[in-house]
């Protein structure tokens, strides 16, 4: 009949368990070995084939031992990923389940790999810089900077306002403390630096901060800022605090310059007065010392002359007691000699004929006049 399939069967073509036959519901017979159809996977067959592959990979055994060897290999490869290198200038901060457990130096090191362990390697030799009072990549005063008055304006010790722009240079000294003891290290350094410099400026006069006291202010601010950061155990080293611009506020700078010029004029007048004083006082002291020395010399001379006169009088008196006539005559002659040597002399001879005047040539007077004329 036309509906009979090859090999017999009923009208639905279900002619027994022959190869390729199907029942009316489109299902393969349970014992059929033909191809085609939606056959479910055979897990036993898959396991058997996997075991055969393992036996080929591991001739000495398979099954459970193979899985163990594979697990050991995977664990070994995972453990090898725990080696890490810390470059010069870095510190390795080791974390176990996110907790800081240690710090390592430069070189090849080992720690448990992720996800158990983690290593952070910050650079501890790079010098970082924080700008306070201004913002910009250029130097202070250039067109690329912007002033921040809420950071730069502060009060001095003599109740004046000063405008200071400065930078703080810092490095990491302890990477673990830097990463885990302070939440925002850079902002903490900035705020602590503002507090430190305001404290130092609050004890410094305006003129000193503008001129000779700048180096002292920088050093005191650095020391105070370092003490604050050490108190936080921040692991930060403050390398330098450098003031870039120190001026009075922009609104009063003209009046401040007038005051500065007046102070300069005052200092100039003081310096001139000091120079005059330094010139006149030594001369006056020298004159006074010379007068004192002259008075002392006069006193000594007069004293010595008086002593000599007294001794001479005593000597004459003793000679008079010894030979009165001779001493009297000698005193008379010496006295007359002294008197007549200073007076004009006219010699009269009473025995001569005529008027008795004897011609006299005044040689001593002529000599004196000649000497006087030569000195003119």
TrEMBL record:
Membrane topology: Single-pass membrane protein
Keyword Membrane attached: yes
Signal peptide: none
Gene: hflK
Protein name: Protein HflK
Subunit organization: HflC and HflK may interact to form a multimeric complex.
Similarity comment: Belongs to the band 7/mec-2 family. HflK subfamily.
Domain annotation Band: ranges: 81-260
InterPro entries in the record: Band7/mec-2_domain (IPR050710), Band_7 (IPR001107), Band_7/SPFH_dom_sf (IPR036013), HflK (IPR010201), Membrane_HflK_N (IPR020980)
Membrane-crossing segments per the record: 63-84
Compositional bias ranges of the Gly residues kind: 1-38
Gene Ontology CC terms: membrane
Keywords linked to the UniProt accession: Hydrolase, Membrane, Protease, Transmembrane, Transmembrane helix
Pfam families: Band_7 (PF01145), HflK_N (PF12221)
């Amino acid at each position: 009949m036309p509906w009979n399939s090859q090999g017999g069967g009923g009208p639905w073509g279900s002619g027994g368990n022959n190869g390729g036959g199907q029942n009316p519901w489109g299902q393969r017979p349970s014992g059929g070995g033909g191809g085609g159809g939606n056959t479910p996977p055979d897990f036993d067959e898959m396991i058997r084939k996997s075991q055969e592959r393992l036996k080929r990979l591991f001739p000495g055994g398979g099954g459970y031992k193979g899985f163990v060897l594979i697990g050991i290999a995977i664990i070994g490869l995972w453990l090898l990923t725990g080696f890490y290198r810390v470059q010069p200038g870095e510190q390795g901060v080791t974390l176990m389940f996110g907790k800081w457990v240690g710090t390592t130096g430069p070189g090849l090191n080992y720690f448990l790999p992720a996800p158990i362990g983690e290593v952070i390697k910050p650079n501890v030799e790079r010098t970082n810089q924080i700008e306070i009072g201004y913002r910009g990549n250029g130097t202070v005063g250039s067109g690329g900077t912007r002033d921040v008055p809420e950071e730069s304006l502060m009060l001095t010790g003599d109740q004046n306002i000063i405008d200071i722009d400065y930078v703080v240079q810092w490095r990491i000294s302890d990477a673990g403390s830097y990463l885990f003891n302070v939440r925002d290290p850079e902002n903490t350094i900035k705020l602590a630096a503002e507090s430190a410099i305001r404290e130092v400026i609050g004890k410094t006069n305006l003129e000193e901060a503008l001129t000779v006291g700048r180096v002292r202010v920088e050093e005191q601010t650095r020391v105070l800022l370092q003490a604050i950061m050490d108190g936080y155990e921040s692991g930060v080293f403050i390398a330098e605090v450098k003031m870039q611009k120190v001026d009075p506020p922009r609104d009063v700078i003209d009046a401040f310059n007038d005051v500065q010029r007046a102070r300069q004029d005052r200092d100039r007048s003081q310096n001139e007065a000091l120079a005059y004083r330094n010139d006149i006082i030594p001369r006056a002291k020298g004159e006074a010392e010379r007068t004192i020395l002259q008075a002392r010399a006069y006193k000594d001379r007069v004293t010595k002359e008086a002593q000599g006169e007294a001794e001479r009088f005593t000597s004459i008196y003793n000679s008079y007691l010894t030979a009165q006539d001779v001493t009297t005559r000698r005193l008379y002659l010496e006295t007359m000699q002294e008197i007549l040597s200073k007076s004009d002399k006219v010699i009269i001879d009473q025995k001569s004929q005529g008027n008795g005047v004897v011609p006299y040539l005044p040689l001593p007077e002529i000599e004196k006049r000649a000497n006087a004329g030569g000195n003119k």
